[in-house]
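Just curious: can you write whichever protein you like plus the matching structure tokens?

***
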Amino acid sequence: MPVFRWVLIFLFVSVSAQAQSSFTVTKTTIADQKAVFATVEAANVVSARTRIGGTLISFLVQDGDEVTAGQQIAMVTNPVLAQQLKALEADISAAQARLAQANIDFVRAQTLVHSGAISRSIYDQAQTELSVAQSTLKAKIAARDTLTQHINEGAVLAPISGRVLTTPVTEGSVVLPGDSVATIAEKNYVLRLDVPEYHATFLHVGDPVRIDENGHAAFGKITLIYPQITNGRVIADASAPDTGSYFVGARVQVWIYAGSRPGIVIPETFIDTRFGLDYADLKTKTGAIAIPIQRGAPQPTPSLPNGVEILSGLTPGDVLLPPGSAP
């Protein structure tokens, strides 16, 4: 049977130990684990950049804030663009006046040409001036819309959803197009493992890893193994739940698979510690008896998060009862 990496076979019980109030000891294959340090890294770090040059007049986020893609995080203004917009507004007003006058002249010429008071060429000239006035007004309005859009691009938007890592500029800074105003780490963080070369042969994509934090074990899996060995070290990436709550760059202790061996693992709830000694209540034909056992290292897995290795005192086939069952 192929090694399952974390545990080959783990305590085949038809019903959970809590439901049966008993536990049948079996021989299992335990994964040897090695503790390594992993660094919390962002899968992608993207810069939020300016699209126009000018002065940074407002900054809406600070280091550590969470942002969503498309959210405005800063505003850049350029006084030159504002003056150009005012000039275009004036040009549009003048073009509208010229269009109104050209329309009046065309209507008058249209009336006079029918009565023969003016020549056909004068009528054609009035019609041409009306068309030019209309086109000029449309051009000015399009130029204003383009400039308005250019001014609106002063809003600096978050390119991705994530957490703001750094803000290298402050309000009042003069920036150029393409300058970075913030770096944003995408929320799906990874654990970057630094593993000795000797253990590289044991690493496989999909292998489970265990993260110990605040006395609790969480489980993830290896998602990527980098094919290059540098200074006797192998780099691998692992995913784990709730990594978004970590600080980027934080170091976390991670246990990885480093071989396997046979052993006995039972739930910690079936161990009774009295006066510094560990006991387990063993079921017998006449009742139960407390026998001393030697506790080993914790061996938590996703299926048995409170698993503990037993070094001596138990044999496969023993049936354990909850503490207090023996007299």
Remarks:
- Helices lie at 17-20, 79-115, 120-152.
- Residues 1-20 have pLDDT under 50 and may be disordered.
- The chain has two domains: 17-43+188-321, 49-185.
- Residues 79-115 form the longest helix (37 residues).
